[in-house]
Amino acid sequence: MDIKTFRELIGWTRDLHAHLARCLSHCATRNEEERARALLDYLAAHESEIERIVNEFERQADNNALETRVYDYLYHNPIKTHRTCDEPYATLDFNGICREVFDFHDQIIDLYQTLVGKAEIPEVKELMESLLTMEINESKRLASQVGRMDDL
Q: How far apart are CA 13 and CA 122, in angstroms?
């Protein structure tokens, strides 16, 4: 995807969370391991919630910040994800699923950190810092919940 503005970038990350939610949900019915199916269901719901939160950021953000041009940040470190969802999570075990999903979140956190560091306009910096904080907090919440599931 050719991302030109922060609005498009935020929409793209929202769509990544939505795609991951659909993929996790789809794979939940196909995984043979009961714990993995429960994890996939939980993660799908969590990703849908993050999609909703990111959508709210886009809806409430300063329009000038959203229309600010994003330069070549994504060309250096594109986010790797299962964009086609050919059932990759259906064959992974509990720990493999966790690794994949946390790696996905780490990549988004790295992207937001890069953008915060390069933002020259205060409104853009504030928007990226808010998204970064949200993504970090959601990753921590996810880690805590998954840790509890792993204890069972």
A: 21
Q: What does pTM read for this prediction?
A: 0.88
As given in the structure block, the two tokens for residue 59 are 């809806």
Q: What is the pLDDT of residues 83-135, one digit of tens each?
A: 456 667 999 999 999 999 999 999 999 999 999 998 889 999 999 999 999 99
Contact present, 19 and 126 (Cβ < 8 Å): no
3-state secondary structure of 69: strand
- Cβ atoms of residues 6 and 124 within 8 Å: yes
| Count of CB atoms situated within 10 Å of the CB of 133 | 12
List the domains of the chain with CATH numbers: 6-151 (1.20.1260)
Q: Are 12 and 115 in contact (CB under 8 A)?
A: no
